[in-house]
Every structure is written in C-alpha cells, then in structure tokens.
Amino acid sequence: xxAPSDPDAAAELPAALIEVLKDSTEVVxxxxxxxxxxxGVPTFRDAQSGLWSRYRAEDLATPEAFRRDPALVWNWYAWxxxxxxxxxxxxxxxxxxxxxxxxxxxxxxxxxxDGLHRRAGSSRLLELHGDLFLTLCSAERxxxxxxxxxxxxxxxxxxxxxxxxPGVVWFGETLPEPILSSAFALSAGCQVFLSIGTSxxxxxxxxxxxxxxxxxxxxxxxxxxxxxxxxxxxxxxxxPAGEIVPALLQSAWPTG
Length: 256
Ligand code: OAD
Fold this sequence. Notes:
Layout: H1 15-22, E1 27-31, H2 34-37, H3 57-60, H4 63-68, H5 70-85, H6 91-102, E2 106-110, H7 116-120, E3 125-127, E4 130-137, E5 164-168, H8 177-189, E6 192-196, H9 208-214, E7 218-223, E8 235-238, H10 241-252
Parallel strand pairs: 1-2, 1-6, 2-3, 6-7, 7-8
Antiparallel strand pairs: 4-5
Bound molecules: 2'-O-acetyl adenosine-5-diphosphoribose.
Residues 32-34, 37-38, 43-45, 61, 111, 129, 169, 171, 197-199, 201-202, 222-225, 227, 240-241 line the site of 2'-O-acetyl adenosine-5-diphosphoribose (OAD).
C-alpha cells in the first residue's frame, strides 16, 4: 500500500485480493474507532482532549466509575455526543453504506457507538457495543426517550427515579446476547471478513475474525498500524480507512 496521501489507492490493491473479493457476496465487515478517526472522532487509544485529557476512556467507561461518580460519567458521554454531532461520516463510512446497497449478503458489525455508520446510510448493522444516543434507566435497563430536565446530571428515570445511563456496553459488562451470537454466526458463514480500524484487542469482538478464518473465509485487515490480527490475516492493507475502503469498493464491487 502506498503512502496514505496517494490518490491511486485503488491501483495499489493486490490483484489477488480483488480476484477474491469481486466474486464474493457473503461479506462481513467489523469496524472499530479507526473508521471514525478521519471524521475527527478520537480513537480509544488516542489521548483524550481538553478537560477530559486527564482521564483515560478505560477509567470512565465502567460500571464502577458510574457508581463512584455518575455525574462525571454522564457528562463525559454528553461531551462525546456533542463531539460526534459536530462531525460527519467520512468516505469509509459512505463506502460501507454503498457496499450494503451493492451486495445483498453484506453485513456490517461495529464496535463504535458514535452512530456514524447509520448517518452514512448503513442499515444492515449490528452495534456490538451499543449506541451513544440511546439512554437507559440504570435500574430497569430499558430505553428512556424523554425525561424531565431538572438540571441534575445524570437525570432520573421518569418511571422509577433511578439515574439514567448511556446505552453503551461498559468494560466488564457483557454484550447483548442476540447481537453477539448473530455476529459469530455471520462471521462463521461469510466468504470475506474485513477488519477495519480496530486494534483487535478487546474481546469478544477480537474473536470474530478468528472465527471467520477458522471457517475458511478470506480475512482482510485495514489499519494504519499493525495489530495482533496482522500476523494471521490473509491480506493486510496499511493505510487510512477513508482511502482504502472506497478503493476496495471501486475495484472489487464497482457498480450497484
Ligand atoms: P482502538 O482505539 O483500540 O483502536 C483503533 C484502531 O484504529 C487502531 O488499531 C489504530 O491503528 C486504527 N486507526 C486509527 N486511525 C485509522 C484510520 N484512519 N484508518 C484505519 N485505522 C485507523 O479502538 P477499537 O479497536 O475500536 O469497547 O477499540 C475496541 C473497543 O475497545 C471499543 O469499542 C471500546 C474499547 O474498550 C468498549 O467501550 C466496550
């Protein structure tokens, strides 16, 4: 893969990869924070900015942090929602939404909670770690759409007065079962598995490409850095998702 700034990213894709992709219809893509990086959304491994710079994401996205300081955690997610609302999907998000329209067997799995895949037009989408814009009652774990604003953070559930929480999976929490088993079933049944912009460090999502590999799929990694998956993937494309994913779409699935 040439330098990320090179406009001929399509010309640099391995011919053997395009050969495999162009006849594939059962394609699964798993994305991580790297797919939103070019939209301006910091990744988990990026240092946090501004007044949140003294906190690590791993120390805030936990049930313990919410118990210890619910206002801090609620305000951190409010900050992340405002940050994401101010940015827009980038060419990688848009190319994945276009791919869904071009092949009926395409399925997108994301670890991201930023909602940018939906805003780009993806609908065959499983959000493994939840959604920043979903709010739950922390006691009932049921969605809450509206609540009386009394200025307190976090607001209270209108039904039972428990504090509200973001509808995301925190460290130490389990992923919703139907979504997780669907993600493994899709990974086991696909011909091609694209791992895009994820450090492949966090389970159980990091096991999905291994499941695909063991089931005979071709595994392709797209990342600006090596990851634990790089050693075993069939193809490793080093560069920004915002250039490589559109190039893959153009070269392997050129028309819808
Ligand atoms: P990370 O921050 O761990 O990894 C982001 C990956 O994207 C890294 O491997 C970067 O090299 C890569 N990257 C950065 N910019 C890129 C670009 N422009 N194009 C392609 N790749 C790029 O984020 P995730 O792997 O998503 O879980 O983290 C997985 C999970 O860890 C998150 O969902 C979160 C966190 O714990 C929960 O909150 C439960």
